Amino acid sequence: RFLNFADLEKSFETERARLIAEKKITAAEAAVLRKEKVEEYKKSDVFKAVKNAPEVIREEDFVVPVPASFYDKTATGGEVLLQGAMDVCCIYDDGLVIVDYKTDRLSEEELISKYSFQLYLYSVAAEKMYSLPVKKAYIWSFGLGKGIDVTPFFA
Fold it and tell me: CA triplet 13, 54, 146: central angle to 5 degrees?
């Protein structure tokens, strides 16, 4: 939640104190934050994509209809509601970039296996909501200190 509220142009310590004071994060949440992990993120291409986006939507709740076959491959029609919340959706003129922050201590392969379908569903929802294609969908892994483009796994 720190990344969704913090102004990363300001110091880590200043923003941590501000977010506690504003009750955006708790003291317990602040205690586990690691400055080096935030600094690692700030050096990444994923952060640059967020920073350079003309519009950034954070913690976007959504409910959109999707074909029932997304959940049940045997379904031959009908729709179900897809509900969730995207950490970050960057809106560019030519498309969207989605970022989902993960703190799991998993390998890149495990993260892809566990979360690529989730980001695929976020992409479907975002395309419906903003009428733009998703250009990239990333997992930002704090455990690995890197962004993982899961877009190739959507097929």
Answer: 55
Residues 96-107 as b or e (16 or more Cβ within 10 Å = b)? bbbbbbbeeebe
The answer, yes or no, to whether residue 153 has pLDDT greater than 90, is no
Global pTM value = 0.88
Tokens read off for 53: 């986006």
CA distance linking residue 98 with residue 149, whole number of Å: 10
Q: What is the distance between the alpha carbons of residues 141 and 76, in angstroms, rounded to a whole number?
A: 37
Name the residue among 146, 90, 20 with its Cα closest to residue 2.
20
Three-class SS state of 51: helix
User: What pLDDT score was predicted for residue 60?
Assistant: 86
